[in-house]
Predict the structure.
Amino acid sequence: MSTLSVRDVTHSYPTSPRRVLTDVNLEIPEGEMVAIVGESGCGKTTLGRLISGLHQPSEGTIEFNGKDINSLRGGERKQWRRRVQMVHQDPYGSLNPGLTLAGTLAPGLLVHKVATHRTVERTMIDLLQQVGLDATPAFLNRYPHQLSGGQRQRVSIARAIGLEPDLIVADEVTSMLDVSMRVAILDLLIKFRQERGLGYAFISHDFGVVRYFARGGRIAVMFFGRIVEEGPVDEVIISPAHPYTRMLLESIPIPDPVLARERHLDQAERLIGTPAQKGCVFANRCPMVQPECRTAMPPLAPTPGASGDRPRRSACLFPERVEPLTHVQKERVLKEHHVATVGGGQRDDRPGNRDVDPGLGGSSGDQEPSEQVG
Amino acid sequence: MTITTPRVAPTASRSASLLKVDDLTVQFGRGPGQVKAVEEVSLTLERGELCALVGESGCGKSTLAYALMGIVPPPGKVVGGTIEFQGNPITSMSKNQLNKLRGAEMSMVFQGAMNAFNPVLTIGTQVDHILEAHPDVHPTKQAGRQYFAELLSLVQLSPERIVKSFESQLSGGMKQRVAIAVALLLKPALLILDEPTTALDVLNQRMVIEILKDLHRELDLTIIFVTHDLAVVAELATKVAVMYAGRLVEVGDVDAIFAGEFRHPYVKALISAIPSVLEAGLTVKPIGGQVPNLAQLPPGCRFAPRCGLAEPHCTEVEPALTVRGDHGVACHVIARETGPDTTTFPSSKEDA
C-alpha cells in the first residue's frame, strides 16, 4: 500500500516572503485519482512539484508510505524517485530538443534498471506502442521538433510510465493541446490507471477535463494557497460546498448557446481580486460573505452530514448555503427530453432522484451519493 | 459609463456589409512546396456581428485573421480573391492607406497578448506613443488618455494603477484585458482577436467573455475572434465560421451550428470532443487522426480521411458550400440527405 500524504505543508519560495501554500493536507491513496483545481497562481503547480519532490516544503512534510520523502536516502530515495513520476504541462518545453526519443527514454530505464542495455530498445518500442505512437526503431530516432504537440505529450507519458511508477503527477497535461487531441490523451492516462492501478495527482483548471478524467476520484479545490474544498468529484461538481468552487463551476463556458444565454451569472467584478488579509481568504470575493467570515480563516472541516473515514471537507462556515448550479441539472433535463423525443436510447441509467424540476431543486445542500461512472 | 460610439469612416457606404471576403486564397511559398493556408474562403460580416473563426491548429484561422488586417507574414501572400472593408478593397490598398486603416478602423489583439507589451516602458507611455502616431483620432493627447482610462474601466481595471504599471507587474489575465483596451484606443469599427481566452484560467476566461460582450454592446463594435474552443463560441458568438485545412467548411448563425441536422460532420465531431462539466461531457469522443499536412492534401474532401460519413464520392470531389438561408455547409453527404438522425457522427453513436 503506497499512500502519498501531504501533511501541514506551508511553502514559500526563497525569492519572496509570500506564502504560496498554507496548511495543506491531502491524501492520495494507492491507485486513486485526486484532481487539484484552482485559478492561476493558487499554488496547484507548486503543490504538484512538492509532491514529486522537485522542491522541499518550507514547513510540513510529504510522506510516501508513512516516510518523509526528504528523509529518504540512498536506495530508498532512488526507489521513491522511480515510483513518483511527473508529466509536465508544456510538451514543447519538457522534452530536451537535442535528444532523440531514444535519448529521452533510455536513461531513466537504465538508471532504474527497468531495462538493460540489451533490452532497452525493445522496452522503448513497447512503450511507444503503449502510448499509441509508431512503434518502430526509426521513430525512436526522431527529435521532438519532428513531433506534434499531442505526440510529444505521449512521449512525456511514455517517459513517466516506463519506470512503472505508483503515482503520476500530471500538471495541466492537456491545456496546451487541441480540443480534438485532449480526450485521446486523457483516455490514455485512464487506460494506464485501469491496467496498472496507477494513482494520479491531476492538476488542472478545467473542470470539464477533471470530471471526465477523475471519474470516481476526488477533487481538491485550491484558492490562494489553501485547499478550500475537497471531496468526491461528482459530489463537488453537482453540489459544491464552497462558494469559490461554485464560482469556478459557474464560470465554465458551456458548449450550448441556448443554455449559455439562459444562465444567470455572478457579477464579473467578483471573479478576480486580491485575497482578504484577515479572516477567510475568499471573503473579498464571496457573494455570500457574512460578518463572521471576517474574523478568522475557517478550517477545512467535514461538511454537515458527511461521514466515512474520508468525509467531504469544506473551508466555509456555511457550506449548506452554497446553492447547486442549476444549469448542470438543467442540462440533464434537456438531454432526457432529447432522449425521449428521439426515442433512441436507454442511455440515462443514472439515479433519477435528482432529476426533479431544476427550478425547485435549488437551495439545499443535500448530499447525494455520488455515482461511479465508467 | 459614457463612451461615444465609434465614428464611421467617411468613405463607407452605410448600407454595405462591414467586411466582405470573396474567394480569398493565401499562399505560403512557391513551387512544389507551396501550401495554401487559406483557400477560396468567402465570408460576409455585417456591422455589429460577433463572429467566431473556429478550427484546430493549422486550419488557417489565424492566417485568415492576418489577411483581414493585411499583415500576412512573408513568405505568405494573398494570391487570389478580394477583401472589402467598409466598401474599400483592402487587397489592393497601398501601405500608407493600410496604415491609416489599421488601428483606427480595424484593430487586432494578437495571440499571446501577454508578450505584446514593451517590458521597459509603462503602459501609459506606450499608449502615448500610439496617440502620437495617430494624432487625428482624438482631439488632444489628454482626450486620448481620458478615453483610454474609460476603456480600462470597461475592462474592469483600475486606470490609475494600470497606466503607471510595467508589463511585468500585471497578471496574464490583466495583460489580456489591457491589450483589448489598447486595441480599442483609436475607436476601430472592427476588432479582431486571435485566441483571446486560450492561455487563461476559467475565471479570467469568463472575465474576457463578459467584457467582450459588454464592449460589443456598449461600443457598437463588430468583433471577429479566433478560437479552437467551441464552448467559448457558444457563449460569445452570434455567427460562426468553421475552417478545416484552409477551407471554410461551415458558416452560419451560432444556434444553427450547435443544433439541427444540417451541420458539417467535423463541427459535430469538434463539439462532441469537448470534455464538459455537464454530464454530456462524460461521453466525449476524440476525433481520430489529425489535420492533413497542407502540402499533401488528400483528394476530394479534406476531412474525408477522418470522417465517419465518408463515401467513395467524398474522396474524389471536393465539396462546395451548400447554402440554405444564411447557413452554409461543405459536405456532400449532409447536403444530400438531412433525414432524421442519420447524420450523427458515428463515433458518438456506439456509446448511446
